[in-house]
Amino acid sequence: MTGFVSFVSAGPGDPELLTLRAAQRIGLADAILYDDLSSGPILALARPGADLVGVGKRAGRASPKQDHVSRLLVDYALTGAQVVRLKSGDSGIFGRLEEELDALRAAGIGFEIIPGVTSASAAAAAAGIPLTRRSAAQRVQFITAADTSGNLPPGLNLPALADPMATTVVFMGKRTFPALAAALIAHGLPPDTPALLAEAVSQPEQTLQRGTIATLAAQLAEDRSPLPGLIIFGPLATGAP
Q1: Which pLDDT does position 126 carry in this prediction?
Q2: What positions carry a catalytic annotation?
């Protein structure tokens, strides 16, 4: 009998931010393939005897290849197992979800996608700020600042990213933000545009640092902590009305 795969969005890591459906699927799973950022206390919800398999990818560290992760999902499901693929944040945002869905479709395996709290929303909530404001930030844009090689992706729409009336959330961008900030300033974004660096959101080691795109770029060029983080910049990042 072919099994079933639930793509469970783990949110930023705090189990209390899981949806009820996500928590239920974790508790019923025969096998859980989890990302690094979705491990920790969330895995305590797994039932005794469930297979827990780490398949996370982290910049600068040895990580499983994507085709290996997809193959594991298929292999577990073909044994008849109820499988949870536990992804950090919301599984549909910069999580390589589509590649894993393609593998399941090709193998004729059923699946579901359970949405969750994206780290962008969690970071804004932790900082006490909205992502939009009717008169000043009517647009939100999410980007990744690292391609498959870890470098700033080519072809970024810099004029759009330099829009001072938008809120921009940068995923996986601590290493490349100095280069991104320089490009944005060159395209007209003021250097004093408010910026927020949020690290380990919802975790005990959470840190929030407010500044500007210029000061944050200078800081990240000199010193970067190993904590996972994202950057929000735009008129709302300071939290001031």
Answers
A1: 95
A2: 35, 57, 172
